[in-house]
Amino acid sequence: MKPAPRILILEDEFALRRLMKLMLQREGFEVLDATHGQEALDLIAEHGLPDIALVDLMMPVMNGEEFARAVKNNGWKLPAIFVSASPEAQEVCTQLGFACVKKPYDFSILLATIRDELAAAGSPAA
Fold it and tell me: Which one of 20-24, 64-68, 69-73, 117-121 scores highest in mean pLDDT?
C-alpha cells in the first residue's frame, strides 16, 4: 500500500485553511498546515519536505513568493500550487515555475491539479 501523499497548506485565513485541510484529509492525504511561509519552513525543518505545497500568495510574516524563493534557495525539490485570488498570482507562478489555481476555486479542479502535479513530479504517492 502506498503511503498517503503529504500536503503542506500555507493559508492565513483560518476558515479556508481548515476547510481545505478537512477536504484533503477526506481524500486520503496527510495534511500539515501553516499560516505563513516562516511557519511552513519551520514545519519542513521538523517533518521534512511534503510531497506538495498549496501556497497562498498574500500572507503575513513571509508571503507565498518569499516562501517559494526560500525553498528554491535551499535547493529543495518541492512541487507547489499557488492558490490565490491575487491578480499577480499567475505572473508569480510563471516566474517560479509553479502551477496556479485562482480563488475562488472548485475543489475538484484543485484536487485534479494536485494529482497532476504529484504525477508530474514522479511522486510515488501520486
Answer: 20-24
Q: How many CB atoms lie within 10 A of CB 68?
A: 24
The pLDDT value recorded for residue 75 is 87
The string over 80-117, giving b where at least 16 C-beta atoms fall within 10 Å of a residue's C-beta and e elsewhere, is bbbbbebeebeebbeebebbbbebeeeeeebeebbeeb
| pTM exceeding the 0.85 threshold for the entire prediction | yes
Whether the predicted pLDDT of 36 surpasses 80: yes
**Beta-bridge partner residues of 31:** 7
Contact 101, 80 (CB under 8 A): no
CA distance 42 to 35: 11
> Grid coordinates standing for 110?
484543485
Contacts of residue 4, Cβ cutoff 8 Å, sequence gap at least 6: 28, 29, 30, 125
Report the CATH architecture of 6-106. Answer: 3-Layer(aba) Sandwich (3.40)
Task: Report pLDDT for 44.
Answer: 94
